[in-house]
Design brief:
The chain has about 130 residues and is mainly beta. It has two helices and nine strands. The chain has a four-stranded mixed beta sheet with strand order 3-2-5-4. Strand 6 and strand 7 form a beta hairpin.
C-alpha cells in the first residue's frame, strides 16, 4: 500500500491592516519621549495593554518593556514601534492612538471603535 502526498503552492497572502494606528502627534510624542529618556532606556519599547479596573471595567495601561513577550503584537509606523499585549489585541483592533495637549492635561488618547460605553471621567471603558 502506498500513499501519495500532494504539495501545492499557497496563494500569496494579502497584507493585513495594523490593529493600531498612530496619529502624527502620537508618533512625534513617542519620538520625543525616546530622545529625552536616559541612554539605557532608549532601547525599551512602549507596550499597550488593558487592565480590569475603573467604574466601566477596563482601562488602558502603558509601560516600557525591554523585550516583547511571545504573543505580543508589534506595530511599526513612521519609525516608531509599539507593542500590544496579546490579551488586549482583540479589544484594540481598529484603534487610533493620538496625543492630546491641552491647558489642563497632556495625554495619549485612544479612539477605539469597539467601545460600547465609558465612565464619565473617561478613564475606563466597556467593550
Amino acid at each position: 500500500m502506498s500513499s501519495r502526498v500532494m504539495v501545492r503552492m499557497a496563494p500569496a497572502l494579502k497584507g493585513r491592516r495594523s490593529p493600531l494606528t498612530l496619529t502624527q502627534a502620537a508618533v512625534r510624542r513617542l519620538k520625543e519621549l525616546k530622545a529625552t529618556s536616559q541612554p539605557e532606556d532608549r532601547t525599551k519599547t512602549l507596550k499597550i495593554g488593558i487592565q480590569g479596573k475603573g467604574c466601566s471595567g477596563n482601562a488602558y495601561t502603558l509601560s516600557w518593556v525591554d523585550a516583547p513577550k511571545k504573543f505580543d503584537e508589534k506595530v511599526s509606523q513612521d519609525g516608531v514601534t509599539v507593542l500590544i499585549d496579546s490579551k488586549a489585541l482583540l479589544t484594540l483592533i481598529g484603534t487610533e492612538m493620538d496625543w492630546f495637549e491641552g491647558k489642563l492635561a497632556s495625554q495619549f488618547v485612544f479612539n477605539n471603535p469597539n467601545i460600547k460605553g465609558a465612565c464619565g471621567c473617561g478613564e475606563s471603558f466597556l467593550v
